[in-house]
Amino acid sequence: MNQSNVCTQLYPTTLIGSVFLAVIVLLIGYKVWVRLQLSRAKHPSLSGHAKMSRRMAKLIPYFSYDEQMFFVSDGAPESIVALRKIGFQRLQDDFQTKSPKSISFSQSLDDSISDAHFTNAYRVPFPFREYVREHLKMGAVADTTSGVQIKDLDGQWSYDLTGAYGVNVFGYDFYKTCMANAWEKVKDFGPVLGPYHPIIRDNVERLKAISGLDEVSFHMSGTEAVMQAVSMARYHTGKTHLVKFCGAYHGWWDGVHTGVGGHRETNDVYMLKDQSDDTLRVLNSRKDIACVLINPLQGLHPNANAPSDGALINSGRSAHFNRQAYTTWLQQVREVCTRKNIALIFDEVFTGFRLAHRGAQAYYQVQADLVTYGKTLGGGMPVGVLCGTHALMKRYKDDQPVNISFARGTFNSHPYVLACMDEFLRRIEQEEYQQIYKNLDTIWGSRVAELNHRLEQAELPVHIENLSSIWTISYTKPSRYNWLYQYYLRNEGIVLSWVGTGRIIMSFNFSDEDFEAVMKRFVDAAKQMQTDGWWWQSSSLTNKSIKKRMTRDILRTHFPVLRRWLRD
Ligand SMILES: Cc1ncc(COP(=O)(O)O)c(C=O)c1O
């Protein structure tokens, strides 16, 4: 074989090999690039990394401050500790004097109702839990409501700022009327499930108009409505992954509750950064994303979990709402979802009927493909609802008769729930309620501004951020004791839910006089807490130093042999 023959035979083989290699390198490079994009779109905090946060949660050992440490965990001097002890004793005595029956009734439930046991334990950061449980007992039972107030078993009336977890939008009396009227309409029907009560039709028509979508499915809770929304998105897009945003709550189903609190390995969820171009790039480039799930409440605290006083170890909690910026962000997400055949789901279980009659879709001027509702929509009864386009809601495929999407639920479309919903939806169409919606942001904006002004004037380290009627409190000076403010508020006659000052939900029926009383109580409670020394300041007390101290306490508990080196 001569030289030129060898060359012509070798060249094609080498050429093919080189091209093959180049393709492989390009493919690997592309995969690496796509993976890097995903990593960049994750929020750097622990709550941006579900698996890691779960692993970390297992590494944090329980420890409890004894009586001495309870009062001096920030290194305050003896004189301040003495004030704190007097203040703490006063709270304890006041609670016992005002509400002994409520306290003892609540105590009798604590061991038997898992939810009560959990929520009581997680009202305060865990090192303080034991001492609080032992000494600062608060009632968590009530038997009457009227206007914006709630009465405990001892006849103590307090302002209710729990919002009934978001259900109470228009005031309890509104829902009592819905429930009473509904009862009259369906009381002769009974729990008939299967044949629909005709009341269903008006509900469906109203929900279609409100959501701007074609079809409705009824469920029993917000969690179920979210499950169904995600399921339908996967079924119709044929794609596997759900995108949700860091810190957003969508109910307790472990398909969306992927961080601390859930236990199943979820490999079909991307938890990405809110309001970030990195996230838009991921939505733009990946082919496996079936849907983007948005809780429009996150505009108040993007990339942060639902704020709870149980996690309030320092004053690092912050929030800020910028309506324009969040609107622009949602519109960008809408645009990329449309382009990439990704279903855009608005989870309006909380914001629906609260931010506006047509909820967050109207508030931010964005139309979603699937929308979930719940809470207040039941007119006082438990409910979950999913609205969507025909294309996304259909549970079977015309050309594949066996390929169905299965979803049932015995109590879906319960006639009593539907009758309450009917009352709710009819009533909020009335001028009186439409007027409330129109003025919402102006009223709550000016009320919050006035309260903040009074708190500032009194030089108190408490600041309220709000998204319309939804508030969260941040603390403007470093402290380990901010969580105690919920107890001072209770002593002034303000009831909060178990998450404390992190989530305050105002119902729309607060009159100016009611609100004046609430403002006074907020200021008085904070003044008393200040006088009792809990917000003592020193140059060495910073949010960073508090975190460091907490880390040191964790290490001391985990590795007792290090105690000598990890002294104060
Ligand atoms: C945005 C959002 N989605 C879903 C849920 C779950 O609803 P439910 O508690 O009715 O299951 C909640 C409840 O707080 C919520 O706020």
Describe the protein's architecture and organization.
This protein has 568 residues and is an alpha/beta fold. Among the domains are: 67-168 and 439-548, Aspartate Aminotransferase, domain 1 (Alpha-Beta Complex), CATH 3.90.1150.10; 197-304 and 322-398, Type I PLP-dependent aspartate aminotransferase-like (Major domain) (Aspartate Aminotransferase, domain 2). The protein has 19 helices and 16 strands. The chain has helices spanning 3-40, 50-59, 67-72, 78-98, 100-110, 114-121, 126-135, 172-186, 200-211, 222-237, 277-285, 323-339, 359-364, 390-393, 415-427, 431-457, 485-491, 512-531, 543-558; strands at residues 144-146, 149-151, 157-160, 215-219, 241-245, 269-272, 289-294, 343-347, 370-374, 384-388, 396-397, 400-404, 462-467, 470-475, 494-495, 504-505. Strand 2 (149-151) and strand 3 form a beta hairpin. Helix 17 crosses helix 18 (512-531). The longest helix has 38 residues, at 3-40. The chain is globular. The mean pLDDT is 94. Pyridoxal-5'-phosphate binds at residues 165, 221-223, 226, 249-251, 295, 347, 349-350, 374, 384. Residues 165, 221-223, 226, 249-251, 295, 347, 349-350, 374, 384 line the site of pyridoxal-5'-phosphate.
